[in-house]
C-alpha cells in the first residue's frame, strides 16, 4: 500500500511524509476520524514506508521483499491488534480472517469485520457478543515489542479500535506507550477517539482524518469501481464521505438490478403459466442466503406498491429507476385495486416463512403459484 493508493486525505499524507522525510517519527500516533475514510489503508501505507529498506524520502519502493510482505500483511515486524470475540482469544488466532478481509478491500469498517468474524466462526450464537481487545492481548503486545526487530529496522504495531480495550488492558499498555523500545511505532486507529481513556490520548500524537469530499469520492468510484459519472456522483452525495458505505451502496444497486430481473421473470412466467420454469425460478432464489431472500421480498413489495401507484398517472408519487419505469408502463395495469392487497399479503407471508426457516424452495414456488391466480384478478 502506497500513499498514492489512498483516496484523498492529502493533509494527512503530507503530515506523515514530513515525519518520514525528516526521520522524526512519533512513536505513538492516533489516527482518528469517522468510519470509512481510509485510516487503516493509511496506517498500512505508513507502516510500509517505515519498513521498506529502499524508501526514498517518504515513499516505499513498492517492489522489494519487505514491501511485498507488508502488502500481504505478513511482515515479521508488522503487528496487528484488533477486537475479537472469545474472551481468551488474541488477534493472532484470527489473522487469516483479518487477511482475507483486507484482501477483499483495505477499506472496511467494524460491521464488515464482525461479519468476517462470524463467517469464520460458522453460525455460532456468539454473534451477539461485542468483540473486544482482551487483557490476554496486552501480554502479547508487550512480548512482541520486547523482541528485537527481525529485519533490523522499525517495528510497527497497528491497533485498530483501541476504544474496544477495557481499562485493565489499556493500563497495561500505558507504560510502553510512554517509553517505547527504540524504533517502535504504535499506530492507534480509532473511529471513536472520544471513548479512549485520557491517559491513552495524552500519550499519542494525533492525526485527524476528515470525511472524503464529494469530488474525491465521485472520482474514486469512477476510477476504482468503474461507475459511470452519473452513478458515481449520485452515490458520492449519499454516503457522507464514507467510502465503505459507498462500496455497500454499489452492492445494493447491483442487487437491485438482479432483483429487478427476477421480479420481471416471475411476472412473465406467471402470465404465461410456465410452471416448470417457475420451479426453476424458485430454485434459483432458494440457493441464496436467507438474508438476501428477505431483501428480495422487500424489493418485490416496493415494486408492487410502485406499480399500483403508477396507475394513478402521478409520476411525482413514484420513485422508480429508469429500467423499472420502462417496465411499469406495460406492467402496472396488472396491479389493481382487486389484487394489490392479496399480492402484498402473499409477499409478506413469504417473508415470515423465510424468517421462520421454512424450505425456501417451497415458499418461493408457492408464492409463484399464488401469483398466477392473483394476476388474473
Ligand atoms: Zn520496499
Overall pLDDT: 92
Spatial strand arrangement across the major sheet: 2-3-4-1-5
Distance between the termini: 60 Å
Here the CATH topology of the largest domain equals: Rossmann fold
- Spatial extent as radius of gyration: 26 Å
Q: Name the CATH class of the largest domain.
A: Alpha Beta
What binds here, in terms of ligands, is: zinc ion
Poorly predicted ranges (pLDDT <50, ≥5 residues)?
A: 123-127
Domain unit count: 3
**β-strand number:** 5
Element string (H = helix, E = strand) = HEHHEHHHEHEHEHHHHHHHH
CATH homologous superfamily assignment of the largest domain: P-loop containing nucleotide triphosphate hydrolases
Beta content: 5-15%
What share of residues is helical?
Answer: 55-70%
Write up this protein.
It is a single chain. This protein has helices at 10-21, 39-51, 65-71, 95-104, 110-120, 135-146, 167-178, 198-201, 214-225, 229-238, 243-272, 275-286, 290-310, 322-331, 340-355, 360-376, and strands at 28-32, 78-81, 155-160, 184-190, 205-208. The termini are far apart. Strand 3, helix 7 (167-178) and strand 4 form a beta-alpha-beta unit. It has 16 helices and five strands. The protein is of the alpha/beta class and 377 residues long. It folds into three domains: 3-210, P-loop containing nucleotide triphosphate hydrolases (Rossmann fold, 3-Layer(aba) Sandwich), CATH 3.40.50.300; 212-241, no CATH class; 247-376, no CATH class. Strands 2-3-4-1-5 form a five-stranded parallel β-sheet, with helices on both faces.
